[in-house]
Input
Amino acid sequence: MKCHGEPPESSVPLAVRAVHLVGPASRRDLARTVRRVVALTSQPSWCSHVPVCYRNVRAALRELEALHERLEAPGPVSAYGIAQLRALLTDGAGPLYRGSNRDDLAERLGTSKASISRIEAGQQAYTQDFLEACADALRTDPASLLMRNPTDEEAVWSLWDKAKVGDRKMIENIVRSVIKTGT
Output
């Protein structure tokens, strides 16, 4: 793979991929994506599929803005660097997305981390509006916040949410069979 540092001249497919990566269309797409990530620091939004860690994006703001300018500028760019940037922007577990925690949730909701902690511990009451705002920020529904941990990637409902619509019927049949037979 190009982002692992193999030289593009080591194979024809890598050379073709390198040419594509540094091409104008690819650079424009990446510049647009970087611009959107930077814009999230001033206008928080949770419309992305994977929550952005605002703190990490703000910490890298100067670098991201410089990347955006470089991508839009004429002149050569490194295929290896472009491949790394593409991996950074598309890896939902990367530093731009890591850190979905109380700090980030508090920031999105305009409240304090301490307040979130007190609500979680049952030491502070919450309103329906607050519950709905939390559900929206965590990309779930209010009932799920009360019944399960929506950030647990391995929980049954999280797995269900990840399943393709066409596979859900098969999953239902397997669960019914396990419940019926006990195996």
